[in-house]
Amino acid sequence: MSETRPASVQAVDGRRRNGTAKAGEGGVAPLRWVWLAAWPITAIFVLSNAATPLYVLWQRDIGFSKGTLTVVFAFYIVGLIGSLLVSGVVSDRLGRKPVLLPALVLALIACLIFATATSVAALIVARLLTGMAVGAVVSAGMAAVTDVAGPERRRIAALLASCAMVFGAGLGPFLAGVLSETMPAPTVTVFVVEATLLVTAVFAVLRMPIRSPLSPPKGAWVRVPAVPQGGGRELTLGIAVFAPGITATSFVLSLGPSLLSGLLGSTSRIIAGAMAFAMFLAATAMQFAVQHLHRRIILAAGAISTTASMIALVIAVHASSVPVLVASALLAGAGQGMGQLGGLSLLNSSVPPQRLAEANAALNVGGYVFAGVLPVSAGYLSDAVGLTDGATVFGVALMILAAIGGLVVLAGWRQVAERA
């Protein structure tokens, strides 16, 4: 005997078939929507590093030192951390879309300022807005992927959100390097293309099958992001590996072109962009390779990879070896990728959905504080004592931090219950 289903169930089934079933409505969104939910993360992270190969042009046209260059980069961190103080809480209370759409608007404004920049101040404002957009997307965007995926696909959600971040971060400098070397008006063309990508991300967010939170958390709207009680150890383990990893890749992004110029005697933007792309491609590939491993193994391997990256960096600058420098970049990418995947996976498995955006924000605050302070210090130190000695001091310091992070993972794991 056939059974007549309620109209509400039939409606959910219809939305499931056409890809608009919302989380929490009794249906599971098709897998393609989990991938599409990750696209705004990729689009904004393309912008985050698109300026990297272009700094040599701005340095030539505007005129500023390596120290000033790292300060421009640091304002990105300032905007990002400032955004993280708000975006995670707002996303958990109002929903993902009310945070993601303004973030995409800020990113489009940053594209306009980058395309017309004629001063350091303009670059600083553009980087600040970029950081604000990135802060919103690493909290609300990554949580949106998990929401669309549903509770039974949290592990794949963490993988796709993390890979979207690192792939976009690598694609940005590669596209910028190629377009700026092969197309007219290099600092304009790059950001016109990026603005087009951001517009497609706006449409993806508007159509995203996700609903507003049913039971939003309480408390202050602006606060240092945190995890619910009992989740502190998971957050600590994630930061212990993610922070050194993202600091290593931030150094390559900010001072990598200067190192290549010193070692190769070349200012090719394609080479600089290709190295950054290879670094983040390694991060993406490594995350897919280790996705089924135990989270402790992923985090420990991330710490080892970052430590090895800094050893290679020190060797590269003293031996003037481009292959070793590239190896250092690849190891840095792998270290960030594994630290990021391990940290997000721990949070996805232990934090309830209504606090997940804030938890993601807390992980990124812990990582980006180091990523902002240490490369800036290395930039000014390099101006004072030379790029070789500055990079050596940075490499040794970060090597020690990465090793400590690995020890924290090994020592603290017994106190963390592994949850599916």
TrEMBL record:
Q: Which UniProt keywords apply?
A: Cell membrane, Membrane, Transmembrane, Transmembrane helix, Transport
Protein source organism: Streptomyces poriferorum
Q: What is this protein called?
A: MFS transporter
What region holds the Major facilitator superfamily (MFS) profile domain? 1-420
Query: Per its UniProt record, what PROSITE patterns does this chain match?
Result: MFS, SUGAR_TRANSPORT_1
Q: How does it sit in the membrane?
A: Multi-pass membrane protein
- Which region ranges are annotated with the description Disordered? 1-23
Does the record carry Ribosomal protein as a key word? Answer: no
Q: Which InterPro entries match?
A: MFS, MFS_dom, MFS_trans_sf, MFS_Transporters, Sugar_transporter_CS
Q: Which domain of life is it from?
A: Bacteria
